[in-house]
Amino acid sequence: MAWKGRIQCLSRWLDDHGVSPSRAVVLVPYAQLMEAARRAWAKAHPTGFAPRFESSKNWASNLSPFSPGAMDWSGDLARDSLVASALVDRVAKGRADPVLRTAMVSRLVEATRSLVSVAASVAPEDRASWGQDRLAALGPGLQSPVWEGLIATLAVTWASNSAYSTDVLWGPLARPGEVADALLVWQGFQVDPLAKALTAVWGPERAFVWALFQADESPQTFAHGLDLTDVRWHACGDAEDEAQRAAACVVRHVAVGAVPVALLANDRLLTRRVSALLHSAGVGVRDETGWKLSTTHASAQLMTVLRAADPRASMDDAIDALKLSPLWGDAIAHQVEALARRHGVTRWAAAVAHEKLASVLPVAWCDMLALLQGSKTLEGWLQALGQVLTSAGWWAVLSADAAGQQMLISLRLHPGAATELKGLGPLWEESDGPEPSERRWSLAAFTGWVSDVLESASFTPAAEDAVPVVILPMAQQVARAFGAVVVPGCDERSLPTHPELPAPWTEAQREVLGMPGRAALAQAAWQAWQAMLSYPPIDLLWRSQDRGEDVLPNAWVLALQQAGAPPADEPRAMAEHRPQVPERPAPSAAALLPERLSASAYQDLRDCPYKFFALRQLRLHDADELEDEPDQRDMGNWLHAVLRGFHEERLDQRPGRLADTEALERWAQAVSETMGLQVGAGGAGFMPFQAVWPAMREGYLDWLADYEALHNRAGPSFEAAEVERRAPVGRWQLLGQLDRIDAQPSPEGRLAFVIDYKTESRVRTLERVKDPFEDTQLAFYAALLPEDNLRAAYLSITDKRGTGSDAGTRLIEQPEVLLAREALLEGLANDMARVAAGQPMPALGEGRVCEHCAARGLCRRDDWSAT
After folding, report:
1. Is the pLDDT at 579 greater than 80, yes or no?
2. Quick one: where's region Disordered (predicted)?
């Protein structure tokens, strides 16, 4: 029935009962229908009075504002979670561990929320006895399991002892004949318990109910009586294909003027993706479903701050928060990030204590994060968080954003707003413990509370009224006018014909409590589907694959297909693209030649000229992730730091095996703490390396005992570790950091011995020294030293437990290092001169080097090498 018919029925009833329109209240199932009904009445009756078109909540708020009491349900999780916590503590104090207690509070809020509409439909004076009767009727079903029964009992007790914002509709302000002489109800797909109860109070002479939509046919026969020419279905490949097709369908309808287009939301994530595609196409959208406040940018910023304040926070968490801060931003964050990567620091707590990083960290930022430590009352946490947001410049940014404003209000972050959360819960003067708002909360507990509040709150972005696309739930399409309907998510998972019962009540319990059962929910879903089919043209979409699993369409879609609904054409505009095979790149950039070269830079030039061009001349590089879980590279950095500290402290002393073992263990522990690799600091991923450390330590000490000089034996002695050296070669500067330099006596005097630590596989290290002219690293390091005669070797450190060639630590020397050094210097000067002369830098695309090359995507080796 269209609006014209509904208004005629309403007018006829008022005339038949002698009720003036100004003395009638018409309850609509949801607020969006109020304005549409007013416009329809004004169109049919341009002059005279109009009825009051209201939703039950809107009518109640107009009659009297509502302020919830200490134990009342408010629908605001910031309050309700504290009341639930108080109830759980009251009946199960000391009987539940913290994790179970948190779960119980969450389940209690969920269970009570599902009861609110039923409890509010009982007159306030009868509500408590109604709750007692329901508990008695539920009876033995609440006894097992114990915790589930306790939650159900608390939920019924809470719901039946709470006041509600709509209670004013039971009072004298809304008494029949007081503000209105007739109460007329327009019913949606489901019966509203409150509206049904109010019509019973008003009586048949003063009240009447119309169903806005009535599904007469069954799902099995309905499709065969439809005109299916304007119903099209799309079997999509995956979620992205479905989103793109849905957006294309909407754009096509808008282009031909079939507006407004209803985009029905069955899958929240899918709908968000479609909305983003429409915004990028410049199509205006009004979203009536609302977003979870937790998905907004404002909430993401706030949660980033709380994650950064966690004592176990990673460097990524802290740097993310620093980048988002209006006060510091990217410049400081990038500097901190670069140092953290260089020194292998992955934990914020380790960065604060690190000598090199602590000097560049903003003092004010560290002080602000320190405010968010320890335990505080809820009010104390909110004050501290508000102070941090203000000091870091976030408050002004959030206050200028609609979602940010709602977030600040929802969390009671404005000065003095947190006092509203005090004293919530039942009869605290009779309780031994503190009320929830006065309890000391950890940062983790406070962060969980903030996350729950943001997750439960809904944010509706502002939009113009006259937009071509409206996103709305399936249940809110009744009595609306649309030019076309697009329904993504028509698969058996997102749109089941028989919806699952919402937790936590069973079918039998729902019947006792007066809640709709499975059959009622299925009937409401079917009515919504049938109503949707009254808005042609219609596009129905579903994905046939989801994360590798086959997905079937909804049973109602299958019925439409069997009845003859045609498949849709591809709605996206198709463009022909002819493949073009790229040529092998060979750029030339003499003007970008670096003046300084490291061993790895020259190795890049020898491996592939294009790699040198991309990584060294253009200076392109990937920013390595500051992984939470340590990897082999962290192991190498850690071992280098341990051996450096050990030898710089020990120098040329020989304290004995026991003292050396204790010193190595002490340095291993200290470096782990400095780098944030301790298990207690969140570095559980370092445990495998700690497990092999004893074998590596003993293998290293075994090697050291046979290697270094003793009072009765000549041999090398430690001289320096992590030494930076530079050496000129023509117009270029060679630079590098040597892991270790030892000094060995010889007939010619002191002989320098360069050692480079390797924790890679022993086989790979042996491969390095097979051909002295291919071993760039040791030859390059030798070129950094001025001595005419020297030795150079790799020290392979593994967790092997053998002897000889299978020893855990083995020195692998390059015997031809002097010859290799001369060849390298000659080749380097020649190679760099050719680059400086503008010689092309071709991509070679050969060998093992390409397998893990950072420039592989730039040279497009996979494209041209295939041809």
Report:
1. no
2. 563-587
Strand pairing class (469-472; 231-236):
unpaired
pLDDT band of residue 430 (cuts 50, 70, 90) is very low
Of 368, 372, 383, nearest in space to 416 by CA: 383
Is the distance from CB of 509 to CB of 138 less than 8 angstroms? Answer: yes
Cα 274 to Cα 391: distance, rounded to the nearest angstrom:
38
As given in the structure block, the two tokens for residue 740 are 């270790």
Q: How far apart are CA 669 and CA 674, in angstroms?
A: 9
Length of the chain: 867
Q: How far apart are CA 409 and CA 78, in angstroms?
A: 10
Q: 251 is written with which tokens? A: 């754009």
**756: which DSSP letter?**
E
515: helix, strand or coil? coil
User: Nearest to residue 249, comparing CAs of 575, 544, 572, 574?
Assistant: 572
Distance CA 645, CA 75 (A): 59
Can you state the angle between helices 98-120 and 193-202, rounded to 10 degrees? Answer: 30
Extract the tokens encoding 470.
Answer: 């409206």
| Predicted pLDDT at 428 | 39
DSSP 802: B
Are 738 and 754 in contact, with CB atoms under 8 Å apart? yes
**C-beta of residue 762 within 8 angstroms of C-beta of residue 801:** no
Helix (H) or strand (E) holding 505: none
Token duo for residue 516: 């709709």
Tell me the mean pLDDT in the region 697-726.
Answer: 87
Contact yes or no for 458/291 (Cβ under 8 A): yes
Alpha-carbon distance of 322 to 366, in angstroms, equals 10
Distance CA 624, CA 627 (A): 8
User: Which residues, 6+ apart, have CB-to-CB distance to 187 below 8 Å?
Assistant: 29, 195, 209, 210, 211, 212
Report how far residue 555's alpha carbon sits from residue 568's, in angstroms, rounded to the nearest whole number.
18
Strands 596-597 and 732-746, by their bridges, are parallel
* Dmax (CA) of the chain: 125
Among 444, 446, 442, 536, CA closest to 487: 536
Q: Whole-angstrom Cα distance, residue 500 to residue 518?
A: 7
DSSP-derived 3-state class of residue 471: strand
State whether the Cα torsion 46-49-51-57 is positive or negative.
positive
Higher pLDDT, 246 or 228: 246
Q: How far apart are CA 810 and CA 397, in angstroms?
A: 59
Q: What confidence score (pLDDT) does residue 860 get?
A: 82
pLDDT band at residue 39 under the 50/70/90 scheme: very high
Half-sphere exposure of 243 (CA within 13 A, CB side): 17
Q: What is the pLDDT of residues 621-649, one digit of tens each?
A: 776 666 556 677 778 888 999 999 999 99
Q: Are 30 and 195 in contact (CB under 8 A)?
A: no
- Whether the Cβ atoms of residue 595 and residue 733 lie closer than 8 Å to each other: yes
Average pLDDT, stretch 166-175? 94
- Burial, 204: exposed, middle or buried (Cβ in 10 Å; 0-12, 13-18, 19+)? exposed
Average pLDDT over residues 572-582: 80
Cis before residue 537, ω within 30 degrees of 0?
yes
Spatial contact of 532 and 538, defined as CB atoms under 8 Å apart: yes
**Cα 147–chain centre separation:** 31
pLDDT at 504 over 80: yes
Q: CA-to-CA distance for 238 and 232, rounded, in angstroms?
A: 18
The amino acid that residue 140 corresponds to is P
Cβ–Cβ < 8 Å for 352, 358: yes
The amino acid present at 359, given as its one-letter code, is: S
Q: Which residues pair with 694 in a beta bridge?
A: none
Task: Label the pairing between strands 732-746 and 749-758.
Answer: antiparallel
Looking from the CA of 638 toward its CB, the CA atoms found within 13 Å total 28
